Every structure is written in structure tokens, then in C-alpha cells.
Amino acid sequence: MMISKLFHLFGPLYVNSYGLAIGIALIIFTLCLKYDEKRAELISYDLFLHLLSWGILVGIVGGRLLYAVSEWHMFNHSVEIFALWQGGFSILGTIIALSFVMPWMIRRYRIPTLALLDRCALYAPLVQAISRIGCFFAGCCYGAPSTVYWAITYADVDSIAPLYCSLHPTQLYSSFLFFLIFIFLFCFIQYRVYKPGNILFWYLFLQSIERFFVDFFRGDRIYSTMMTIFSLYQWIALTIAAAAFICLWFNSIMLTKNHERF
Question: Rounded CA gap, 216 and 213, in Å?
């Protein structure tokens, strides 16, 4: 049985499955980078933890803001935007916020920005894969009604997903694909790219493609008022994927030109 709230703390606060999964994911992410040799060549671990704490804050704000903008009808009052314990988060909002803020923060410390972001992007799919398992238990990011034999049914009254109907387990689709992306980046891409930024761009491209395709099976799709062929998040994902592809292409051209000079 998928259980959203594990146990009560006080007031409106609970230890829930989603929060626990994110906590585990961040611990694993931190440990991976602690022992990452290339990270150690770029930045001290203490400074990395400092930047990570800011990154978590920026990611939470960005993820919550995009969710609030796209799901504004879910809030009875603007103050509810700050009620994070009620759920509601957009990973694309997190990625967009981090993409704008973190390069500026890293540059302040005279650290090679793209090289450090490459090391973070290498383990980011692992964070998302584990977090999606939390989504699965919480019922957020739920799938569309389905008759496939692996469909799931939610019965927990605290679940965000519709109850007592068979749904696509889209959270598990995403989790599986993110694990594959992590394996691809970790075992293949990092050993075959030489230009700083390419691991980051590969990550942005692949995670956007994941969101674009999985969104077809989601039951919480949000459509824009002008272009309903794809959902709002699919358009955002396509935009990020296109930008990442252009950056990869540009980096490849610059690498080729540099090789030709020598």
C-alpha cells in the first residue's frame, strides 16, 4: 500500500514519504560528490556544502514557484504558496531556477562553472530517480487511468492521486528512466566528453526528453491556453531540450576547431 504520511510531528507537520525520499536522495548526492575526485580538484568540500545549501534553497523556491504559477487554482490564498508541507512541486522549475542562479554564485568564487556543474549534473538523475519513488508513495505526479496489468490503485485518503481507480505508475516510469540516464552519464558520457559543460548539457537534454514522453501518460497534465497539442510542461521540456542540444552542438564545433588548430 502506498502511504503518503509516515508519522505525525506536530501541528500540520508530518514526516511523509516524499520528504523522506528527497532527504535520502540529497544525502546520496552529497556523499557521491564528497568522494568525487574531479570535484575535489575544483572546489573544497566545505565550499561545496555551502553552495549546495544555497542550491537546495534556490531549487525549492524555483520548483514551488513554477508549480504555483501552473496550478494557481489549487490555492485559496496566496499565503498557501509557502505551505510546503501540503505538497506541490515542479522539478522543471527547480532546474530553471538553478540554471539561472547557481552559475552566478559559482563564478563569484572563481571556480570553473561548467566543470563543477558537470559533476553535479552527473549525479542529478540519481536524485530524481529516488525522489520519484517518494512521488509514487505520496501519489503526486500520478498517471492517467489505465487498464494495463501493472496499473496501480491508491486507497490512502492522504494521497494526492485519485482514489480507487487504476492508474499508470508514471512515477516509476520516471524513476526507471532517470536511473538509466544516470548509468548512461556515469558509465559512458563522462569518459567520452572533453569539453566542460557537455555532461551538463547531456543531462538537461535527456531529462527533458524523459519528461516530454512520460507526460503523455500522466493524469495531472496542465495545458496552455493557446497550444493544447502538448502540455505546458512538455513545451517547457522541449524548450530546455532544444537549448541543451544547441549548446552540445556549439561545444562540439568549438572542440573540433581547437583540435584543428593543433
Answer: 6
| Residue 218 main-chain phi, psi, to 5 deg | -85, 145
User: For the whole model, what pTM was predicted?
Assistant: 0.84
Q: Kindly state the greatest CA–CA separation across the chain.
A: 66
Query: What's the pLDDT tens digit per position in 227-238?
Result: 678 888 899 899
Contact 127, 33 (CB under 8 A): no
Phi, psi of 91 (to 5 degrees): -65, -30
Q: What is the dihedral of CA 155, 22, 95, 51, to 10 degrees?
A: 160
What is residue 163's three-state secondary structure? strand
Which residue is it, cell 526528453? Answer: 209
Cell of 63: 520548483
Helix H or strand E segment including 234 = helix 232-261
Three cell numbers, residue 229: 497539442
DSSP letter string, 168-224: --HHHHHHHHHHHHHHHHHHTGGGT--STTHHHHHHHHHHHHHHHHHGGGBSS--B-
Q: 13-16 and 5-10: which strand pairing?
A: antiparallel
Rounded Cα gap, residues 247 and 197, in angstroms: 9
CA angle 59, 127, 180 (to 5 degrees): 130
Give exposure, 210-225, as e/b (b: 16+ Cβ within 10 Å): bbbebbebbbbeeeee
The average pLDDT across 26-48 equals: 93
The helix (run of H) or strand (run of E) holding residue 26 is helix 17-34
Close Cβ partners of 117 (under 8 Å, ≥ 6 residues apart): 102, 103, 106, 197, 200
